[in-house]
Design goal:
By secondary structure, this protein is α/β, with parallel strands linked by helices. The protein has 2 domains: 195 residues, Vaccinia Virus protein VP39 (Rossmann fold); 113 residues, Alpha-Beta Complex (DNA Methylase, Chain A, domain 2), CATH 3.90.120.10. It has 11 helices and 10 strands. A 7-stranded mixed β-sheet has the order 3-2-1-4-5-7-6, with helices on both faces. Strands 8-9-10 form a 3-stranded mixed β-sheet. The chain is globular.
């Protein structure tokens, strides 16, 4: 009988990354400082110990006590806001984003936890912008100091692995991760077409009616064509980025972010939380808890489960080889 490999999820959010590691892995510990996300994780991974705590307050002794001093695999998604170009307030100097920004420095906390537990494999997810300028060399230096000489920057597209939305992320690890791509791509309507109308008492979790659009916005939404957005906001360097996009049913959805809200392709309304979760590849039995905005945020800030599953397969191959 194949043994289960122990898994620790740091900055676990709602559990999208962990969801991909369901098979052959035992969820031992998850850490996240967001109360609603921690509740969601615990609700979906009942056997795991879930700490709703700032990682900076968790010592190596705490981790060893909670895990028995060992973990086969450590995964995690430190906040990407200090690094992403969608953030107009990110620091101009790349190294300041890692060492001076207190949120960016949470990446160093992930590395500290990896050093504490010395897993066979670690995988850290973030936006590709975390590799800008001297950041790549800085990360190599930090992981080397934690005991890992080799570092791989695996840039993967979620849409290549069964996610019906665009998403490019880097997965930084001590092993190469090159999953086999799917030959086809799912589109928006492939995953939304069989859902019933939203209901106050839905059969499918998180499929309640979405927040109503104001009359003024509704008039503008009716005139939108597929792929057009209702608003634009300012990102880093003054770049204007779209939101409230009316989805094209026969194409990939745009990248789903925590702040993303989408217009249904055929109904003049926002997507429900469940519809948005389907764009990220979450199964319908993954239930999101907390307030409505918190649920949308949990969906958009997750690693898409189909991509996570592809990564888990590569990790498992390494562990059993």
């Amino acid at each position: 009988m194949r043994r289960e490999h122990s898994l620790i999820d740091v900055f676990s959010g709602a559990g999208g990354f962990s969801r991909g590691f369901n098979s052959s892995f035992k969820h031992v510990l998850a850490i996240d400082s967001n109360r609603a996300a921690a509740r969601t994780f615990k609700g979906n991974f009942k056997s795991a110990v879930v700490l709703c705590e700032d990682v900076r307050n968790i010592s190596c002794d705490d981790l060893r006590y909670l895990t028995g001093g060992y973990a086969d695999v450590v995964i995690g998604s430190p906040p990407c806001e200090p690094f992403t170009g969608a953030n107009p307030g990110r620091k101009p100097e790349p190294l300041d984003r890692l060492y001076s920004d207190p949120v960016g420095a949470l990446v160093l906390e992930f590395i500290r936890i990896v050093e504490c537990l010395s897993p066979k494999v670690f995988v850290m997810e973030n936006v590709p912008a975390i590799m800008e300028g001297p950041l790549k060399d800085a990360l190599r230096k930090e992981f080397r100091a934690a005991g890992y000489e080799q570092l791989f920057f695996n840039v993967l597209r979620a849409q290549d692995y069964g996610t019906p939305s665009r998403r490019i992320r880097v997965f930084i690890s001590n092993i190469p991760i090159k999953p086999l791509k799917r030959s086809d791509m799912l589109r928006v309507w492939d995953v939304l077409n069989d859902l019933p109308e939203p209901s106050e008492e839905p059969i499918i979790p998180n499929h309640e009616p979405p927040p109503r659009l104001s009359y003024r916005k509704l008039k503008r939404v009716i005139r939108l064509r597929w792929g057009q957005s209702l608003i634009r906001y300012e990102g880093a360097g003054g770049v204007r980025l779209p939101n409230l996009i009316k989805l094209h049913p026969y194409r990939l959805a745009p990248t789903v972010l925590g702040s993303s809200r989408f217009i249904h392709p055929f109904d003049n309304r926002l997507l429900t939380v469940r519809e948005q979760a389907r764009l990220m590849g979450f199964p319908d039995d993954h239930v999101f808890l907390g307030g409505r905005d918190e649920q949308y945020n949990q969906v958009g800030e997750a690693v898409p489960p189909p991509l996570a599953k592809a990564i888990a397969g590569e990790v498992l191959k390494f562990l059993v080889s």
